[in-house]
Specification:
There is one protein chain. The protein is built from eleven helices and no strands. It folds into two domains: 84 residues, Endonuclease Iii, domain 2, CATH 1.10.1670.10; 100 residues, Orthogonal Bundle (Endonuclease III, domain 1). With 210 residues, it is mostly helical. It binds iron/sulfur cluster.
């Protein structure tokens, strides 16, 4: 089986196993996803989802957040950890959105990467989930599972994993595959416990590089 054949089979099976996979960060507008991905660094999505309503209650628009004292933002987002740097990035990011992008989240990688606090992983999430463009989000689950399954070989660097997966995953499938890998990583192939290969839908196609 080639890596591409394995990737296609994995995509097919995970789609069937997790038909409702989606981003686990709550948002109803693109700029809110920008804020949530920044807050999610070294924090759980669950906690971020609990914290952000307080922020939007006090500051309902990007312009409000851009004008807010950074100390106020920090007081609200502190439970997500790294409160000072996250508050600073969020304020700067919303300011730049207003001043340089007419208040709208841009839909290309370079523009997204120019925003404070936005890295490649976050930019890919925005491109895929908001704009439905080809995107590979190389988070910890994606990197771990891609290696274990045998889609990449001994590669831990997020950018290199992204480039390797781009060669074997059809562009229109990348975004959903990453959501599926998150669900599969949490349910069956965890980093914290031994992988449950005996009940795994990928058992006979996975190289089990554990
Ligand atoms: S077969 Fe095992 S190692 Fe492979 S994806 Fe499933 S649980 Fe993980």
């Amino acid at each position: 089986m080639t890596k591409k054949e394995r990737a296609l089979e994995v995509i097919k099976r995970l789609k069937k196993e997790y038909p409702d996979s989606t981003c686990t960060l709550d948002y109803d507008e693109a700029w809110k996803l920008l804020i949530s991905v920044r807050l999610a660094a070294q924090c759980t999505d669950e906690r971020v989802n609990k914290i952000v309503p307080r922020l939007y209650e006090k500051y309902p628009t990007p312009a409000d957040i851009a004008k807010a004292p950074v100390e106020d933002i920090e007081a609200i987002v502190a439970p997500c950890g790294l409160g000072h740097s996250k508050a600073r990035d969020i304020k700067k990011c919303m300011t730049m959105l207003i001043e340089e992008f007419d208040g709208k989240v841009p839909d290309d990688m370079d523009a997204l990467l120019s925003l404070p606090g936005v890295g490649r992983k976050s930019a890919n999430l925005i491109l895929g989930d908001i704009f439905h463009k080809p995107a590979i989000v190389t988070d910890t689950h994606c990197i771990r599972l891609s290696n274990r399954i045998g889609l990449v070989k001994g590669e831990k660097d997020p950018y290199k994993v992204e480039m390797a997966l781009k060669k074997i995953v059809p562009p229109e499938e990348g975004n959903d595959l990453c959501h599926h890998l998150v669900d599969h990583g949490r349910a069956v192939c965890s980093a914290r416990t031994a992988p449950k290969c005996d009940i795994c839908c990928l058992n006979d196609v996975c190289m089990k590089k554990i």
